[in-house]
Amino acid sequence: MRKTSYRLGQHKDAKVVVGYILNQNQLLEASATVDAATLTHLEMPNRDGFYVDDRPDVSEQPCYKDCIGLQLTGKIR
User: Fold this and answer.
1) What is the dihedral of CA 25, 27, 30, 34, to 10 degrees?
2) 31 in Cβ contact with 25 (< 8 Å)
3) How many Cα atoms sit within 13 Å of 73 on the Cβ side?
4) What is the Cα–Cα distance from 25 to 44, expressed in whole angstroms?
5) 41-64: string of b/e by CB count within 10 Å (b at 16+)?
């Protein structure tokens, strides 16, 4: 089986699919250009539907850099 690798921003196919999905959901005109400027000015329908999860079992802040106690057990493939 042939393995195909795509890198974001290198192929216009991804932009075509994103543009199609946004157009089908009436978020983008069919003649619009899909680029960084267009995507950053979109207002998604569920933009106000997010909330802070204040449950006590998830109150710790995630660690993204120089985390103590993080141990890798193998490689992700």
Assistant:
1) -120
2) no
3) 1
4) 10
5) eeeeeeeeeeeeeeeeeeeeeeee
Q: Where are the domains of the chain?
A: 1-38
d(CA 74, CA 77): 9
Q: Tens digit of pLDDT for each residue in 20-67?
A: 999 999 999 999 988 888 888 898 888 888 887 777 776 667 777 777
Residue bearing tokens 């543009």: 19
Tokens of residue 46, six digits? 């569920």
* Total-model pTM: 0.50
Type of residue at 42: L
Which amino acid, one-letter code, is at 13? D
